[in-house]
Amino acid sequence: MPMLVELKSGETYNGHLVACDDWMNIHLKEVICTSKDGDRFWKMPECYIRGGIIKYLRIPDDVIDKVKEDMQVSRMRNRNQGGGEGGGRGGGARNKFRGAHRGGGPGQRADRIGSGGHRGGHKDM
After folding, report:
1. pLDDT tens digits, 55-106
2. Confidence (pTM)
3. Which ranges carry the Sm domain (predicted)?
4. Contact indicator for 86, 92 with CB cutoff of 8 Å
5. Per the domain annotation, does 90 fall within a domain?
6. pLDDT band at residue 110, thresholds of 50, 70 and 90?
7. Rounded CA separation 52/46 (Å)
8. How far apart are CA 49 and CA 42, in angstroms?
9. What distance in Å separates the CA atoms of residue 51 and residue 73, rounded to the nearest whole number?
10. Total domain count for the chain?
């Protein structure tokens, strides 16, 4: 995919995206680098750009549209899978009665207001 990367220093890199990671580090191939003032050009077979120095990326509109479509398809697929109890982090009925010991439950003394749990709890004063 062809793209333009502008760095915080003002240099620009035009090339084809090979890879991008979670920190926005980018690997480009067939790259043309342009100096900040636009007077000098370098052609490179490939380059690696650290995500922290990137100012912005210019990506073709059709690529952005494709990503949006893929995200919608993915959401629909996830919705249709559903099924299980509770979903998310809770685990459904399996954890339904857990946590009674935290800040309440049978056997807790009424004069200990706000002493919830073994990790310090919350104390109202």
Report:
1. 999 998 988 888 889 899 888 888 887 655 555 666 555 555 555 555 555 5
2. 0.56
3. 1-63
4. yes
5. no
6. low
7. 19
8. 15
9. 28
10. 1
